[in-house]
Automatic annotation (TrEMBL):
It is found in: Mitochondrion. It comes from the Eukaryota. It comes from Trametes pubescens. One of its GO terms (molecular function) is structural constituent of ribosome. Keywords: Mitochondrion, Ribonucleoprotein, Ribosomal protein. InterPro entries: Ribosomal_mS23_fun (IPR016939). GO terms for cellular component: mitochondrial small ribosomal subunit. This is Small ribosomal subunit protein mS23. Its main location: mitochondrion.
Amino acid sequence: MATKRIASQVHKQASRLIREGYIQREPAWYRAVLDNPPLPLPAREPPSRTHFDTPEAVALTRPAHAAKISPLPVEYVEDQVRKQFFRDHPFEAFREKSLVENEKVESEHPVRGEAWKRLKQRGRNPSPEDAIRYAVNLYEHQNVNLSDAYASAVAQFRSLRSEVTIARQVALAEAEALGVEFGPSQTEITFRKESKAFETFQDTTEQTRTAETERKRWKAVVEREGRPDHWTKGQEYTRLWKEGVRPVYAPVFSEPEAAPKPELTPEQLAQRLSAQADFLAVTGKA
């Protein structure tokens, strides 16, 4: 009965038959096939793990002291200096910096190692990374302890930044004195864009009202008099219909209309003409 199964399923079928009692005694090949099961089909399916590779078996063969072994933390001096630097200078993290890489990786600065004794050797406008690398360089190549190296790097960094700030202020004052007019800064341009976006939200009510008017262009707009919740059960409409009054759905004008002139009888017309100076020319009795 088990021989009708494919090769990878014979031992599984035999296990089910033994478990249900259909086979009273294990075949001679049963244990050998369980220890070395055939490859499953399809071939892409991973083979089943043997009892030697189960987590329970691995835990039994593992030495007792192996469970206490843990990887050591990976720490670099640069990370410690960088963490302390940005803790002391938090606003340096807000300075813009381009993250776009060039065609090739930038090579290391030629001034490094024992030749790098002052921070300004790499420029008079250093970046935070320059100050951090300078502190680590003093620690590794100048035999200075890390605390003194960090203090020296921070002091030189602040001095150079102060020089750059004062130079920019002087240049700006000279340019304004010569009549140079500067355009809006990037911050001002951003604020203008935000204000323009806020104005679009303020016009939402007017746009909604205009859209409703456009939708009601071909609909009758009825202005009813009296309270909106007043219902006459159609009695007023029926009364006006019996009297021959047709309903008018046009809006009610708020401005008074000119009353039509009443028609005059011949006697009233003659009296009005006699009150004028040229009534004889009108009547033809001149």
